[in-house]
Write a structure and sequence with these properties.
about 400 residues, alpha/beta, Arc Repressor Mutant, subunit A, Nucleotidyltransferase, domain 5, 3 domains, five-stranded mixed beta sheet, 17 strands
């Protein structure tokens, strides 16, 4: 064999091994229950010897760990269960109009450290706000020093971002535009750990589409509606967030439900978030900005007319805006997150009826409405999940 042919053969074998390592790692991560080496072989179509050899390499590199064998007696030799390792993790950061978050997630989907700070950053100066986020991140990483290897980082922002250039183009509720957050965060983060920017709602939706790194959620296709100070949205098709041609898809909060409605920070009028955003809802109910959704529900339960009117207005606006999305994209499920998730029990029945009346296909498939699991910072988790996806796609670099 000529030297050139030997090099090409070696390259092909290396590529095949890398591909198979990724397949094995993803198979274990996606499993509902910890599989054995034999299970991995069966699910991937590999021979047992090949699967076992690849698993051994992933275990040696810390990307997989062996669990305790089932103590119940079985015929034959019991298999050793395999789980994702806890030594590789990612940092997820989130800035919202009412929250700063720094969260570290490991390959098993566990939050191993976090810092969350509530506040009001509407119209804030981006420099000091990002400095504070950087200090939160530094505190979290200091607590974990030597315990995990960071695979990457992500930053969720409530607006339009250019991820390729690392630029926040516009975040209406923050009042920020045309800035590079990495320039402010860099002094607080390890060298080379540059957070990849993403839209807050897109990344929060990822936590519904993917319950842990590589593990699919219950709905492959859904519309996620993020209730924060404003309202964000993301469309998920076949488990993937639909980004659009420039990554700006899903801005449900700025769908117009009444052209003659109140002005929005985006520059338009009558946007959905002017009726269903947290600040808008509380103001319509005669409550202060720092009141909780629970207080709104309590007032409505006692028959307070302002609270009832606020919820009715939000329900009507949501039905108009969301029905338009469902009609255009043929989505079967709506998942409400943030404060809208907390209000889902109150909004749900009437909103489902409103969607059924407006969605053309509802006669054959009535739209479903669900609340996302409560989480103060789902987009921080989503940012970390996105970074860990790179490990599952190409685990070789993490084996040394």
């Amino acid at each position: 064999m000529a030297d050139g042919e030997a090099v090409q053969l070696g390259a092909r074998q290396s590529t095949l091994r890398a591909s198979n390592l990724g397949l094995v790692l993803r198979t274990v991560c996606a499993a509902d229950a910890p599989p054995s080496r034999a299970d991995v072989a069966a699910r991937t179509g590999m021979t047992r010897a090949t699967a076992a050899r690849l698993v051994d390499g992933l275990v040696a590199g810390g990307l997989l760990v062996e669990g305790e064998r089932d103590p119940l007696p079985r015929r034959g030799r019991p298999g050793t269960p395999l789980l994702p390792g806890g030594r590789v993790a990612a940092l997820g950061l989130q800035v919202d109009a009412g929250l700063l978050a720094a969260r570290v997630l490991d390959l098993r989907g566990r939050v191993v450290a976090e810092r969350l700070v509530d506040g009001d950053w509407v119209g804030s100066d981006p420099g000091p706000t990002l400095e504070r986020l950087g200090r939160l991140a530094a505190d979290v990483l200091r607590d974990l020093a030597g315990r995990v290897r960071l695979a990457g980082a992500g930053l969720a922002l409530p607006g339009i971002v250019d991820a390729d250039r690392g630029v926040l183009l516009r975040a209406p509720n923050l009042g920020w535009h045309d800035l590079r957050p990495a320039d402010v965060l860099a002094p607080h983060l390890p060298d080379g750990l540059d957070p990849v920017l993403g839209n807050e709602a897109d990344l929060a939706a990822r936590t519904v589409a993917e319950t842990a790194p590589g593990r699919p959620g219950p709905h492959p296709d859904f519309l996620y509606v993020s209730g924060q100070i404003g309202v964000g949205g993301a469309v998920v098709l076949d488990g993937r967030v639909m980004r659009g041609s420039a990554g700006w898809a899903g801005e449900v909060g700025h769908v117009c439900v009444d052209p003659d409605g109140p002005p929005c920070r985006c520059g338009s009028t009558g946007c959905l978030e002017q009726y269903a955003g947290r600040h808008a809802l509380l103001a319509a109910a005669g409550l202060p900005r720092d009141a909780s959704p629970g207080q709104l529900l309590d007032n409505a339960a006692t028959g307070d007319p302002s609270a009832r009117a606020a919820l009715d207005g939000a329900r009507r606006a949501l039905a108009i805006a969301l029905a338009g999305v469902l009609n255009v994209l043929d989505i079967p499920t709506v998942v409400l997150g943030g404060h809208l998730g907390g209000l889902a029990a109150e909004l749900g029945p009437g909103l489902e009826d409103g969607l059924a009346a407006r969605v053309l296909s509802a006669r054959w498939r009535r739209p479903r409405l669900e609340a996302a699991a409560p989480d103060a910072a789902p987009a921080a988790t989503g940012a970390a999940l996105r970074a860990l996806a790179d490990v599952l796609a190409d685990p070789v670099r993490w084996l040394d």
